[in-house]
Amino acid sequence: MSRKRKGFAKIGLIILIVVIAVGYGFRLRTRRLEQAAAVLPAGREVVVTRGDLARSVSSTGTIAAAQDLELAFDVGDKVKEVLVQATERVAKGAVLARLADTEQQKAYITAKRDLELAKFEAAPSVIKEKELQLEIAQANLQNTTLKAPFSGIVARVDIQPEEWVTSGTPVMRLLDTSRMFLNVGVDEVDIRYVEVGQKAIVTLDAYPELKLSGTVVEVGIVPEAGGQVVIFPVKIELDDPDPRVRVGMSAEAEIVVEKAENVLLVPFEAVTSREGKDVVAKVTEEGIELTEVETGLSDGFLIEIKAGLQEGDRILASNYELYRTLQGGMGSGSRAIGGVRISPPGGMRR
Question: Is residue 317 part of a domain?
Fold first, then answer.
């Protein structure tokens, strides 16, 4: 065989070896992809994306006004006139109702006359006594007129003219709805996360489609009395009250106690603990890599990935099917188990 023919044969052999190697590599890659597909059910692959995440503490309670007061006369007598009705708005100092004041006027006039006479002939102690009697008579006369202690809405009127009332008996209810609050109770396990200034999302039972923003303005330091569960009172002010919100309505608040913005997010069930480390199943062209990650904030549905993955990476949404096939555990180096490569990332900070 000539030297030229030997050269052609040698080249042909090299080409044949390359073709065989490429074919083997292609078949190996195809087999690994098939093995990956076997543990990756349809629709269970997700892409690592960025987004915002928040963790919240939920509790229920009732809507309350800034001020809610039962009004009563400080003296008893017959109702002379009622000047307002329920749902009416009134200003601070407005006259709401009056009692018949004949007896009170009589007592005031008598006390005033007695004081004037005492100033001419009585001892200083007697004059002081008459001054006190006049103050009491004047107060009783003034108390026959019921005035609004603050601006608000008359929620209820329980009296009518000619009706007799006694001292201290509630006759009206006045609400100051210029500010609205949600009073909730937070379990002792969660109260440590709640602070003044945190934001909350408020949902009303009556209007479930209505989402209102609120701010925590007060966190109780003494638990509410009664019950076996220790509950602390928390007051949330509605930032922009809706006209549909009414005092006494039931509502639920989700207090945002921690949040992370523009972070890498994956489904919570995609992360599994293996030998004390958090890992995910990363999908590659060669198969599936079990990759260690550093996790952060979680809301129970999504979890933050601080290290170990990049935006755009593909992972299994759930590792359950994969981990059932991996019984050997993670080694210190990269190795394959059933077509699945297990790779702990370098430089991982814990």
Answer: no
